Each structure stands twice: as C-alpha cells, then as structure tokens.
Amino acid sequence: MKILFWSVGKKHESYVQEGVDMFTKRIGHYYPAAWFIIPSPKNSAMLSEMDLKKKEGETVLGFLQKDDHLVLLDERGKLLKTEELAQYLTRKADENIRNLVFFIGGAYGVSDAIKKRADLQWSLSPLVFPHQLVRLVLAEQIYRACTITRNEKYHHS
Fold this sequence. Notes:
Blueprint: E1 2-8, H1 14-27, E2 33-38, H2 49-63, E3 69-79, H3 82-94, E4 99-104, H4 112-117, E5 120-123, H5 131-149
Parallel strand pairs: 1-2, 1-4, 3-4, 3-5
Helix pairs in contact: 1-5, 3-5
C-alpha cells in the first residue's frame, strides 16, 4: 500500500516543510509515502466559492484512480482516536489497497462530488486549523499510527 497526501493550495510553508519531510520520511519505513500539492486554479480569485470547489473537485477526481481509497479530511468528519487510525491503516493494508489517499481540500472546503467519492470523511479535531498546520499534524498522526501497528515506543498511551 502506498500512502499519498494530497492538498489543494500553496507549497508547504518553511515552518511546515521540515516537519512534513521528517514525518513523511519516517512513514516511508512502513509504507511508500508522497505529497502532491494541487495548485489552486489560475483564475480562482474570479470564481465563486461554489465554482472554485467544483473546479478543484474536478481536478482531484481527474487524478484519482478507480481503486484509490480516498480519505477526506473534513472538520465535520468522523473523529478517530489514534489507535483507531492505526487499526484503519492496518485494515486497508490487509485489504491490499493500492493507494490510500489522504486529501486536504481548499480554503472553502470540497465539492459534493468529492464528499460522495470519499471512502471516509475524517476529522483530525473539532477545532479548525490552518491548512498548512493540518499537513504537519496529518503526517505526524499517520507516522504515530504506523508505530502503533508495530508496537514501537514513539506512541505512549
């Protein structure tokens, strides 16, 4: 199973880049992992929120393969404890999922088409975070979940 992190927006800010790189490299000890930053449409300032979400959604759906497993990060999604996330990763690996895609939408959220396509809508927290910070927290939590599955000492419950 390959873990893919997709995010709409700008490249990682410098304060995020170092941490994202570190945790992505660590995840690589368990699963191949990579980030893909999807730039906002060129005319995004001219689009309504709804049109922007639709255009971003069309782009993402165009990148997804039929058998990709999509996890949408959404503040209204299901809350998972870290141990539950570890179990989720294990189940997906056992199901021979080829690509497990974690997707962070744009500033205004995602289109209904993306929500319908998502296999899981997951909330990191009931709090709202800046997208850049979500990237770092996501990478760290996936790494933490990986260490739990191997009973390694990074995670202390």
